[in-house]
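One thing: could you explain this record?
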Amino acid sequence: MIKLDRRAFLKGAGATGASCALASVVPGSLAAIGAPALKGSGETVYSICEMCSTRCPIAAQVVDGKTVFIQGNAAAKSFGGKVCARGGAGHSLLYDPQRIVKPMKRIGERGEGKWQTISWEQAYSEIAAKMNELKSKYGPETVVFSSKSGSEHTHIFNMANAFGSPNTFTHLSTCPGAYEVAAHAIYGTKLKRDLSNSKFIINFGHNLYEGINMSETRALMNAQMDKHAKLVVFDPRFSVVASKADEWYPVRPGSDVAVALALCQVLIADNLYDKAFVERYVEGFAQFASQVAAYTPEWAASLTDVPAKDIRRIAHEMAKAAPHALVDFGHRSTFTPEEFELRRTIYALNVLLGNFERKGGLYMGKKASSYNKLAGADVAPALANPGVKIPKPAAKRIDQLDGQYAFTWKMGGVYQSIIDTVTTGKPYPIHGWVMTRTNPMQTVTDRSKVEQALKKMDLVVCCDLYVSETAAFADYILPECTYLERDEEIADKSGKNPGYYVRQQVVDVIGEAKPGWQIFRELGIKLGLDAYYPWDNIQTLQLAQVNKDDALLKEIKAKGYVSYGKPLMLREPQMVADFVAAYPGARPADDDGTYGSALKFKTPSGKIELYSVEVEAMAPGRGTIVYHEPQLKQPDELYFIQGKVAVHTNGATHNIPMLANLMSDNAVWIHPETAARFGIKNGDDIRLTSSVGSETGHALVTKGIRPDTVFAYMGFGSKNKELTRASGKGVHCGNLLPHATAPVCGMCVHTTGVKLEKA
């Protein structure tokens, strides 16, 4: 063990962190209170990363009392026992001088940056009193709650529902929402990709070699290297995944859906689709086929700049590889108002390939209950869902004002509807906003409107690790401890067979920070909601999850990641044969050697729906997939698109010392022809101006972008002084993006037009 005093601590924190912290010390930060010695066992602790939404299984170990060495958990084979750059930098959070470790209360104007430290008791008492006052005067529904979806968001949402508010929002509509809503509309459930066994992969801007999901990134690598899979990428930018593709097409921003529709047209018109699969499992094929008949490759070529002959050839090559072919449904593309139709069309392509529950295709996660039923034995333990049933709040959600978003209400909500409601007062005014691990000032479009909404609130509470760009406008900041300092519930990680993993504390908590579950339990009790907290701590909650099976709990904790049984895909004959052979009581295979008759879809028809009565009722004219021309820019503007980078996570990691040192700015990609037209050279200062804002950055002149398009990585350009490593570094994408919501899926629209000039 070593002991660091404040002077030694700041000196050793790294050049960027130390100098910035000395320039401006926030009262509740680690720099202000000094750093204790790092306390934790030298033994390896198996846990879960929290540096991005993937949440990879990890093995962490305190080294010489100085730092935490983080690597992957070898038991999680699909992750390869590896972590990415973000995961390896997790220890950089612990001793960051700018990290908040004591509760703070605003004492100046919102956003002014004036704070005082307070006790947890004072914070809970004052917040609870204000929340109950708002509840009494205006109703509980006038307080909204938001969180990044993940391991602990249920705790803030359970507190919200117990308080009486239905208004809970995840980050769904700012990032993954379109493909989840589209999957629900067509298949009735979320789906997974079997990338590693694919022989032909089509990719619409899902840059897995930068927006890294360790399991899926490795699966794509394995498919390309081991299976010699062909990869075709449609993306306006020459991304890293495009650079590794067999073919790259710099498609016009917003026109991806036209390419996908034309591929569907060729598969149907040339009788290349899986007729047997469609006949058995698909509803609405006739309506869909009739609609796409007009969407020929020639039609698409005029909209997309992708040659018709290439679209036709690719469709034939893809069909030849089917069913071990895959059209990747996400994560991030160019994001237009037609995201719902793009994702539905991508799923429709997979349907036509007949790749569902086949190697190299799409499949459903095999949770313990369904897996055990097929096996005729308790192969995998099923987790319980402990807790007290919370009554459903009486009021309607604010995003229920428009019925077309019915799918999204149930999944994570239209996050940006908070901004609409504050602006219009409809369906009722909003007076309070409580949030955790979410940064809408970076991730929701039109930053100025988000700022205005925050300033209008009677109460803003942020639970975070830093004074994030959003937390800078809070009344109270509640410091959550890092993922290396907390235990959490057991989480389901089922794939082709059931699996679980668990986050475990690696080091003692630094300062007065607390885990999110504890913060919202204690605040809930202070609100008078004691009856909804029958558990005392996370250990009793874990034990309840495993039905008090102490041996099982010890096994999960000892390994960190456990899986049960044999991998199973219901329409893959060899996998079904191996499954039946392994379990004497297993359900017999169908006559064709599959479990095809066991397939059930949670849709109104019980089948895969290429025409949806449900969607038609929500959004008339959209029951089947129809092309709508997106209007993204004016004739004298350039398209502005964004994307993910390998060393940062959206709006969350740009101030973390190690990652800030790796990349602190986001140069704007500009094609040489475009740069020459504006007299811009590589490295020059430039200005982008949209209909809602203006940003200054610097130019990266490259042929890796279309001449009519500029690109920047998202999450940079923070505007609050507390994040001194990130403040003013680069272009703030959200400040350029107008506030707009895509139909049906409720997505923020992340493409717009901008004017470019030399600054």
Remarks:
- Confidence is low (pLDDT under 50) at residues 1-23.
- Residues 88 and 457 are 38 Å apart (CA to CA).
- The chain is about 30% helix and 15% strand.
- The first helix runs from residue 6 to 11.
